Amino acid sequence: MMNILIIGNGFDLAHGLPTKYSDFLGFLKKFSYIYNENLEGRNRQRQTVIFKDLDERVQEYLSDDKRITNKDDKLMKELYSLSVNNIWINHLEECITKNKLKGENWIDFESEISEVVRALEYLKKINKDRVKNSKFNVDIDDNEMYDKACQFINKMKEKGYKVLEMTNFETENFYDSTAKKVINKLNNHLNGLIRCLEIYLEDVVGNIKIETKLIDIYSISKIDKLISFNYTDTFKRIYDEEQNIEYDYIHGKLDTSRNVDENNMVLGIDEYLDGDDKNKELDFIQFKKYFQRIHKKTGCQYKNWIPKLKSSINIVNEKSSYFNHNIYIYGHSLDITDKDILKELIMLPKTQTTIFYYDKNDYAQKIANLVRIIEQDVLIDSVYGVKPKIIFKEIQK
């Protein structure tokens, strides 16, 4: 029998770690303020008010003046240079300020990036049609998407970003080679954001002492494999005492010793194009998760486990009502963005899946999300019976 644990960001949050994206963006905002004040040589009188919305342990990190304001600290210097005037960081901060984003679920963070990318893809198409037809008036069948793209580009100009070093760059210029140069700039800024996240999670969150251990995790007799959708090594730090568990970090793993170009963390969007377009329209391919997973060579160890799981099921026990393997899912939203991985594992024969939920609202959301992954009829068949294939279990608090 093999026991596999799958974890998402909710696992880190359950241990009291500040890993919401609002925690990350809030940290960057305060860090940049402190670092910039020191660069300008101001006699800074730090007020408590600028820290009040941050986790106390993050506040403590920022209170270390010798570290934060040390111009010779390469990591702090890199963090500042990549975060200051970062297009995506500033845009997402603005979305939180305007209450468009709550700052909790990373899927919302990625969805906002996806909305911008899709809008820019649409603008590129409209502009290309204008040039192709030699006329300015081209039918715009999605004004909301068109306006979002134009507003995003104009905001870049207003905030002083040097778009292609062109002072006369206008939204109608966004197509072909010009668009590719802008897209490349946006991709570089996304990579900068990802590297900043790596530094925050390892250098700040990674040094926070974890006081909480989860009853539900301890109740699992033995965990053989762990699939993590997180970048952190929280489980390994506090549960894997014998160090004999095999890990698969689906979205990459933290390592601040490398630079921004060597980073292997996946933070992107899902495919939004249909039909032949997804194989032909590739200007935004570097933003997409499937590309990043391949390009950054992230973990895919679970693919090697599946043949072993299946081979352990012989003809005799295949007909029995007992399960050969167990999958436990803790702190993962079951969002459709990870459908390919989750479905393959949940639908394994003779395998029972236990899904932990936080409260009734979380329970309802997980049911809805699971329908999108394995479809309604399959879910209904899987949750009923003496030995159901899928079990929902409330987290023990």
Give a short synopsis of this structure.
By secondary structure, the chain is of the alpha/beta class. It is built from 18 helices and six strands.
Instruction: Classify the secondary structure makeup into a structural class.
Output: alpha/beta
Rounded to an integer, what's the Rg over CA atoms?
A: 23 Å
Number of strands: 6
Main sheet specs: 6 strands, parallel
Give the overall shape: globular
| Spatial strand arrangement across the major sheet | 3-2-1-4-5-6
Structure description:
The chain is globular and about 70 Å long. It starts with a strand and ends with a strand. It contains 18 helices and six strands. It has a six-stranded parallel β-sheet. It has a domain at 2-13 and 211-272 and 298-394. Helix 7 packs across helix 8 and helix 17 (360-374) crosses helix 18. Helices cover 49% and strands 8% of the residues. With 397 residues, it is α/β, with parallel strands linked by helices. The mean pLDDT is 89.
Which properties best describe this structure?
18 helices, alpha/beta, 397 residues, 6 strands
